[in-house]
Amino acid sequence: MRFGVLGPLAVWTEDGEPVRIPEAKIRALLADLLIQEGRPVSADRLIDDLWDGDLPRHPANALQQKVSQLRRVLNDAEPGARDLVGYGPAGYRLTIEADAVDGGRFAVLVSRAGRTTDPRARSALLADALALWRGPALADFTDAAFVAPAIARLEEARLAALEERAETRLELGEHRALVGELGDLAARHPLRERMQAAYLRALYGAGRQAEALEAYEQVRRRLADELGADPGPPLAALHASMLRQDPALTPQTVRLTRPDLPAQVTTLVGREEEVHRVRAALERSRLVTLTGTGGVGKTRLALEVAATWSEDDGVILAELAELRRFDEDVVLDALGIRDDGRRPLHEVLYGRRLLLVLDNCEHLLDQVAAVVGPLLRGVPGLRVLATSREPLRLSGEAVIVVSPLAHGDAVRLFTERAGEAVDDDEAVATICRRLGGIPLALELAASRVRGLGVRELRDRLGLRLLGDGPRDAPARQRTLAAVIDWSWELLGQAERAVLARLAVHAGGCTLEAAERTCAGGGVGVCDVMDILARLVDRSMLVQGDGRYRLLEPIAEYCAERLSDAGELETMRERHRDYYTALAVQAGAQLRGHDQHAWITRLEAESANLRAALDHARGHGAADCALRLVNGQAWYWFMTGRLGEARRSIAAALSVPGSSPGARAEALAWHAGIGICAGEAGNPELALDAVADPATRARLRWFVGFAQIGVGAQADGVGHLNEALREFEAMADRWGTAAVLAGLARYAAMRSDFAAARRNGERAAELFAELGDQWGLLQTAEPLGVPAEAGGAYAEATRHFATGLRVAEQLGLWSEVSLMSARLGRIALLTGDPERADELHERARRLAVEQSNKSMEEFARIGLGLAARRRGDLDEAERYFRTGLEWMGRIGGVGPRALLLAELGFVAEQRGDARTASELHAHSLEAARADGDARAEALALEGLAGARLLQGEPGEAVRLLRTARVLRERTNAPLPEAERFDVDRITAALRENYRQG
């Protein structure tokens, strides 16, 4: 994330989206942490700063709440950002890099400027630093005493940078331009002698000597009147130099006249960082080439850099798009020089300091290189900034790829250009995403909003719609198709064939996929890699993370070309067959050492796999569709994509004409995943129809694993035991480990902690031998829950934290939800309710994102437990009632006993003895039906509280003793979280007896 203090307090995501910090105290907390520049701040100091003597009732708790809210706001904007607000023995600190704050970037740029000897480079660095300021430092905290020193320090640094840049520009002879800029500053800071000296030098050098002398007299009188002092030695020496008319005060640089750059009629949006990058590159290298796809804004960026460039002899712009030849005469014409002596160009330009901008070089690359190479060697003061869809490939060339706009900047550009006609943020976001952030495409689309509206534009968006650009634009830029045509015509036949064939891929593809699908018709497999590299160089193809991707407008254009060539359907079949084979291969590789790599690969190929399934369905390829979903089913379950799994498998099953074996396998997967999602199902028929023993055993295990998690425990245990026999007969170690993990999970749910540990440890040993991280993750809960129940919270935390780490590494967000909720329970047990709420809320949010209702309700129960303990009974009851309804729908028993007990405790705390007694009785019934001794003890303890409220203390004591005996007999000690109620009931009993 990025933070701003050079102006009003501001926060942005990495994509540049502003983050709203909603409440004044939270903003003040963030400001306090930012001005410490990474140093820790004690809690006492933060409390004093935030409340300034008007302390809340519980200051430490109030501060913790604000810290928690700040973490939540940051994390909602950028997952993982909550960890930026750290805590240690010395207090709270913001753990960010210095340049993540605009104040830090400002300091770095000023420091670099101070070490730079070239005045032009120094002036540019200082200009970049000062451009970071958005107004007075921390302008929204000017009344806060704790911010005052930081504001003073930042404003002093800003003034010093202004003075430094003014002196640097005086070295460059920019006296006239400085007079107007420094006049206001000098008036606002009459006692800053360095500022006054720069102003006097600017006046004198601009030919206004009399005004300079009069201004000196005003400064001298002001110093005497307000400070009782004379001007310092530097200012006095400058006055003496002016009196003797020292020639050194007169600028010697004479700038040559040059044709003006074309004035821009619109603002440049979202390219601030790129402008800085290009300027920095020009300081390091004398040849910089901006590459990128057509319409991405290379020319606009180059003109923005050129407009602010300060070479002594100016800037030359040569526009090459309409030229069919490039030679030295083109440069001379651009400069306005007629050299009748026909001297070589490098002699004409020698001794000058120039920036030569060559726009649209791609169709004249050889000719441009032939001219520019010798020029750079012969003219030391020359710099060249070129725009092209591929590099010039000259020595010393710095290539900067101009990328499409980030989503936030794309939306801003589209909205600005469309004007007041924008009335649907979701439609705008869709348009910007489909147009790939290409500025030209966004501007062409925005021009159609007035006539169509954004929703109609979104529905009709396409290449042919994006026409009728500005009449004063070049013909090649009036439609998006024309922009792409320009690049297409520069390609060879093989390059066109491969580029068009890539259009069938969705979301890009790997090199292997391109070789398998794009070869043929004169293109050999071994040729594809080189062709892809050339297409990347020519900005028709984007490469990153080992994948090749077409921007959507180019993909649409290529699909049309593919259709015109009669290859579209053939290529879609080839694409379908390749990704079907990939899905089948993945299904066999997702267990063991390569698990993480294959999860990552399937995530990257998700769009291609969906496209392959859509094609198989649309063309009646039933077995192909079933192979696709059967190959991905285990991946979908592992990663918590239950909704996608159910929809995709159902879609594949709807295609008629499939083979019985593939259909039976898909039906079994569908039934098991449906059970996980809370649907009743009867998978036995499908399991019996699966012919392959190994496949049948794994599906039987999967169904049993699903059943023990949501209610049908008896059936689930039966399937697991039968699967275990089959796995052991086949010597299938993975299957054996998976069953043991499921049985350990079931034992932990029933409070049979000895069996949970025994099976869990054996499963963990086998999974470790196999290198299966998912399997190790499955043992974290059955090993951690017994430790939690026995009060060994450090051990439980170790198991759950290990599970959380593995789940995050694998990207298994449903499991991340579960482990977060488990750690939330530990936080509740160890007396950290704030941390418990944070962990449970994270778990709930992730479960909702993954459409995993079971995990969502588990997290909500945790939120309810914390709410009841802090006395928020209405909120707690809502959580428990919702959970009870959910358990009723899926037929759950064990968790139902817990929820009934918790509702009973809510009724007790309200003093409603009758309701409490009924609820605890139902809880006891559910616990006994499930054979859960721990839940049974909890229900007995609840009944004791209800009996006490009903005036039966003797019965309450008897029930408590019975519960204690049951816990001792079954090795289910009373956890701290449940002690909350036992202690409350016991204290009430003591008070009852004390009063007779």
Q: How are the secondary structure elements laid out?
A:
Blueprint: E1 2-4, E2 10-12, H1 24-35, H2 43-51, H3 59-77, E3 85-88, E4 91-94, H4 102-114, H5 119-130, H6 148-171, H7 175-188, H8 193-205, H9 209-227, H10 233-243, H11 272-284, E5 287-291, H12 298-307, E6 315-319, H13 328-335, H14 345-349, E7 354-359, H15 365-378, E8 382-387, E9 397-401, H16 407-418, H17 425-434, H18 439-446, H19 449-452, H20 454-460, H21 480-488, H22 493-501, H23 511-518, H24 525-537, E10 542-544, E11 547-549, H25 552-564, H26 568-589, H27 595-604, H28 606-618, H29 622-638, H30 642-653, H31 660-676, H32 684-689, H33 693-710, H34 713-730, H35 733-749, H36 753-770, H37 773-789, H38 793-810, H39 813-829, H40 833-849, H41 853-869, H42 873-890, H43 894-909, H44 913-930, H45 933-949, H46 953-969, H47 976-994
Parallel strand pairs: 5-8, 5-9, 6-7, 7-8
Antiparallel strand pairs: 1-2, 3-4, 10-11
Can you characterise this structure?
- With 996 residues, this protein is mainly alpha-helical.
- Among the domains are: 272-401, Rossmann fold (3-Layer(aba) Sandwich); 407-483, no CATH class; 490-566, Winged helix-like DNA-binding domain superfamily/Winged helix DNA-binding domain (Arc Repressor Mutant, subunit A, Orthogonal Bundle), CATH 1.10.10.10.
- The chain has a 5-stranded parallel β-sheet with strand order 6-7-8-5-9, with helices on both faces.
- A hairpin with a 5-residue loop joins strand 1 (2-4) and strand 2.
- Helix 37 (773-789) runs antiparallel to helix 38.
- The longest helix has 24 residues, at 148-171.
- The radius of gyration is 36 Å and the shape is flat.
- InterPro entries: BTAD, HTH_77, OmpR/PhoB-type_DNA-bd, P-loop_NTPase, Sig_transdc_resp-reg_C-effctor, TPR-like_helical_dom_sf, WH-like_DNA-bd_sf.
